[in-house]
TrEMBL record:
<keyword id="KW-0566">Pantothenate biosynthesis</keyword>
<dbReference type="GO" id="GO:0000287">
    <property type="term" value="F:magnesium ion binding"/>
</dbReference>
<dbReference type="Pfam" id="PF02548">
    <property type="entry name" value="Pantoate_transf"/>
</dbReference>
<comment type="function">
    <text>Catalyzes the reversible reaction in which hydroxymethyl group from 5,10-methylenetetrahydrofolate is transferred onto alpha-ketoisovalerate to form ketopantoate.</text>
</comment>
<dbReference type="InterPro" id="IPR015813">
    <property type="entry name" value="Pyrv/PenolPyrv_kinase-like_dom"/>
</dbReference>
<feature type="binding site">
    <location>
        <position position="52"/>
    </location>
    <ligand>
        <name>Mg(2+)</name>
    </ligand>
</feature>
<dbReference type="InterPro" id="IPR040442">
    <property type="entry name" value="Pyrv_kinase-like_dom_sf"/>
</dbReference>
<keyword id="KW-0808">Transferase</keyword>
<dbReference type="GO" id="GO:0008168">
    <property type="term" value="F:methyltransferase activity"/>
</dbReference>
<protein>
    <recommendedName>
        <fullName>3-methyl-2-oxobutanoate hydroxymethyltransferase</fullName>
        <ecNumber>2.1.2.11</ecNumber>
    </recommendedName>
</protein>
<keyword id="KW-0460">Magnesium</keyword>
<feature type="binding site">
    <location>
        <position position="91"/>
    </location>
    <ligand>
        <name>Mg(2+)</name>
    </ligand>
</feature>
<feature type="binding site">
    <location>
        <begin position="52"/>
        <end position="53"/>
    </location>
    <ligand>
        <name>3-methyl-2-oxobutanoate</name>
    </ligand>
</feature>
<dbReference type="GO" id="GO:0003864">
    <property type="term" value="F:3-methyl-2-oxobutanoate hydroxymethyltransferase activity"/>
</dbReference>
<comment type="subunit">
    <text>Homodecamer; pentamer of dimers.</text>
</comment>
<keyword id="KW-0489">Methyltransferase</keyword>
<dbReference type="GO" id="GO:0032259">
    <property type="term" value="P:methylation"/>
</dbReference>
C-alpha cells in the first residue's frame, strides 16, 4: 500500500506545545533540500527548520546575511515537497523583517504562500515586536530566536556564548516572556548558559528549543550537516556528531574514481 501525505498524522504547533506540557523532548533539525528533508522526516523529527544557515552550508557564505528571500523560498519549497509529517519552519532572512512590520508581514506571507511551509522564524526580541505581532495577526505561526542570533554577528563581533552577564540574561528572559505573551508558538535559544535556559524554560509556557544551550531546553536543534560530520572543520563544544559522512563520502568518491580509471566501472552487468 502506498503512503499518501494524508495517511500520516502531521506535527502541528499544538503537538509541539503538548509535548512540552507532558515533558517529552522535541527533536528538531535543519534541512534545505528535497533529498535530505525526506530522510530527516522519515527518521521522525518533529520539526524541520529551513534555516538561513543554508547561506553557510549550501552556498558557502561566511555568514547568514547574504541569503535572499527568493533563495529561502527555493529551499523551503524543496523541503516541503519531501516532508510528510514534520512541522516545517522557515527563517525570514536578514533584511526582510527588521525595519518595518509591513515588510515583515509581506515577507512572511510570501514564504507561506510560495513554499507551503507551516511557520516562520525571526531573530530578536523587543526590537522586532511589531513585526512579530503583525505576522501573528495574519494567522502565521511564529518561532522566536534569542541568544546568539547569527544575523547580528557584526554587532556581536564573535560567535561566543551570549547572555553570560546579568544584564543580557535579564533582557533575554524579558524578551522570551514577550514572545510568549504576543503568541509565538516556540523560541530557539542559541548558545546561552544552561542555567539561563533552565530559567527561561521554566518561566514561559511555550517550548524552548536549544542549540548550544544545554539539556534544560524543551527541545534540541542542530544543523543537519554538522550532526552528520559533513564539514570536518566545524567542531564547537555543543556539537555531537552522529556520523562522519565527510570521510564516508570522500572514500566512496575515491573508489569511484579508481574504478573509472581502472576500467572496472561500468561492468557489462551495469551496461545495456
Ligand atoms: O539557521 C539555522 O540553522 C538556525 C538554527 C541554528 C537554529 O537558526
Amino acid at each position: 500500500m502506498s503512503v499518501h501525505k494524508t495517511d500520516i498524522k502531521r506535527v502541528t504547533t499544538h503537538v509541539i506545545q503538548e509535548m512540552k506540557t507532558r515533558g517529552e523532548k522535541i527533536s528538531c533539525l535543519t534541512a534545505y533540500d528535497y533529498s535530505m528533508a525526506g530522510i530527516v522526516d522519515a527518521a521522525g523529527v518533529e520539526l524541520i527548520l529551513v534555516g538561513d544557515s543554508a547561506s553557510n552550508v549550501m552556498a558557502g557564505h561566511e555568514t547568514t546575511l547574504p541569503i535572499t528571500i527568493d533563495q529561502m523560498i527555493y529551499h523551503a519549497q524543496s523541503v516541503v515537497r519531501a516532508v510528510k509529517r514534520a512541522l516545517v519552519v522557515v527563517d525570514l532572512p536578514f533584511g526582510s523583517y527588521q525595519g518595518n512590520s509591513r515588510e515583515a508581514l509581506s515577507s512572511a506571507i510570501r514564504i507561506m504562500k510560495e513554499s507551503g511551509a507551516h511557520a516562520v522564524k525571526l531573530e530578536g526580541g523587543l526590537e522586532i515586536k511589531d513585526s512579530i505581532t503583525r505576522i501573528l495577526s495574519a494567522g502565521v505561526p511564529v518561532m522566536g530566536h534569542l541568544g546568539l542570533t547569527p544575523q547580528s554577528i557584526y554587532k556581536f563581533g564573535t560567535y561566543t556564548v551570549r547572555a553570560k552577564e546579568d544584564a543580557e540574561a535579564a533582557k533575554l528572559l524579558e524578551d522570551a516572556k514577550m514572545l510568549e505573551e504576543v503568541g509565538c508558538f516556540s523560541v530557539v535559544l542559541e548558545k546561552i548558559p544552561s542555567k539561563l535556559t533552565k530559567m527561561v524554560s521554566e518561566s514561559i509556557s511555550i517550548p524552548t528549543v536549544g542549540i548550544g544551550a544545554g539539556p534544560e531546553a524543551d527541545g534540541q536543534i542542530l544543523v543537519l550537516h554538522d550532526l552528520l560530520g559533513i564539514n570536518k572543520a566545524f567542531k564547537p563544544r555543543f556539537l555531537r556528531r552522529y556520523a562522519e559522512l565527510n570521510d564516508i563520502m570522500h572514500d566512496a568518491i575515491g573508489n569511484y574514481i579508481k574504478d573509472v580509471k581502472s576500467k572496472s566501472f561500468p561492468s557489462m552487468g551495469e551496461s545495456y
